[in-house]
Amino acid sequence: MNLPKLVFNNMARRRGRFVFTLLGITIGIGAFVTFLALGGSLKKEVMREANALGANLVVTPKGSCAYEQVSILTGEVLPSNISMEEYAKVSALPGMSVVPVLAEKSAINNRPVSVSGILPAKMRAFKGWQLTAGDDLATDNEPAVLLGAMAAEQFRLQPGGSIVIRGERLPVKGILAPTGGKDDVTVFLPLATAQRLFNSGEHVSFLAVKVDDVTAIDMAIERIREQVSLGVVSDQQMLASVLSIVGSVNVTLQLIAVVAVLAAAFGIVNTMLTATYERKREIGILQALGATQRTIFTLFLVESGLYGLLGGICGVAGGLFLSTIAAPQLEQNIFTSFVKGTGSVGILDPAVIFGSILFSAVVAVLAGLYPAWRAARLSPVEAISYE
Fold it and tell me: CA angle at residue 207 from 201 to 213, to 5 degrees?
């Protein structure tokens, strides 16, 4: 008695049923892997952007929540509620370097782009920027722009070219060397120019602070709070807060995918139960040829597990493929701009890939337990006399 051949023949006998049952588990596992890949990429990008920020502390308007902290890392528009007077007070504190940032949005060729108003000399020293082409911004109110490396490539701009921001045409002064963060997809303006164009008056969105003595972070926070009535958060606190939000979204998406896998499991149950009734005569013949209840049980369980194994393999391959396509197409919003910024998705750990396939197979085997048990309990007389 050749069990593998029997399993293959039984699955191939109803090709339509086989394809749709396999598609159910494939879609479920594919969704699970897609969300897992995108979620892993989000976490990696959050950590990378936090490091690229180059600040130990971030000063925000008092009462700012995690939404604003995510916006700082993604380059989204932020309220401009910190005055230059408050910036001067924080900047005067010894033992720390402070740079103001005005975070806004504009568009180039009808495509959204992040715009940051900065003090060029201070920001260059703060982040250690290098130029690959052109010159740096000379003054704090020069009507010109610096472009991140990816922004220059995306919009095919070079020094000597120009862009229009808020109705004013500004020359491209220089191109920054790649930084590996959101700076690569940002347009930088001198702070005074940005404040004029975006009508923010003498205000900025946040202050990035680098503390000389990293062991005295808590003391630095207290000193800033004594000087100004603003919110102060450390880079580690901000990272934990943002990762908590991203993690919650990721878990929710994965739970949705798990529900899809479980729904596919019930499809397997239905398929195997139907097969049990359709193949009663075949079961009776097998029993007459000496097949035991254990053999019948194993036959149906292997068939069910094979659905899960094949569906898991196809689902993992499809999920990785879809996540690679989905990342660059994600809308520019507060949670997905991390992925959109790089246009890529991190490769899943092999253990996660094999774990997803194993999960699919285990779910399918569990789904096949009851149909296999029903098939094994058929009496030879009942089975062989079935028409």
Answer: 155
Contact 129, 177 (CB under 8 A): yes
Cα 303 to Cα 89: distance, rounded to the nearest angstrom: 73
Banded pLDDT at 170 (limits 50, 70, 90): very high
- Cβ atoms of 95 and 220 closer than 8 Å: yes
Which letter, b or e, does each residue of 224-262 get, where b requires 16 or more Cβ atoms within 10 Å of its Cβ?
beeebebbbbbbeebbebbbebbeebbeebbeebbebbe
Coil vs helix vs strand at 211? strand
The pLDDT tens digits for 26-54 are 888 888 887 777 766 666 666 666 666 66
CA angle 213, 217, 220 (to 5 degrees): 90
Residues 6+ apart with CB under 8 A from 339: 38, 41, 42, 45, 327, 330, 345
How far is Cα of residue 349 from the mean position of the Cα atoms in its chain?
Answer: 15
Closest C-alpha among 245, 267, 138, 243 to residue 190: 138
Record the tokens describing residue 330, joined without a space.
């994600």
Question: In the block, which residue shows the tokens 């603003």?
Answer: 230
Strand pairing class (162-165; 168-176) = antiparallel
Token pair recorded at residue 222: 């207290």
Tens of pLDDT along 209-235?
Answer: 888 887 778 888 888 888 888 888 776
Side chain identity at residue 254, one-letter code? Q
Q: Looking at the whole model, is its pTM more than 0.70?
A: no
Q: Are 141 and 168 in contact (CB under 8 A)?
A: no
Query: Is-contact 74 103, C-beta < 8 A?
Result: no
Burial label for 335, CB within 10 Å (0-12, 13-18, 19+), is middle
Query: What is the rounded distance in angstroms from the CA atom of residue 323 to the CA atom of residue 169?
Result: 38
Gap between the Cα atoms of 185 and 121, Å rounded: 20
**Which phi and psi (to 5°) does residue 20 adopt?**
-70, -35
Q: Are 344 and 327 in contact (CB under 8 A)?
A: yes
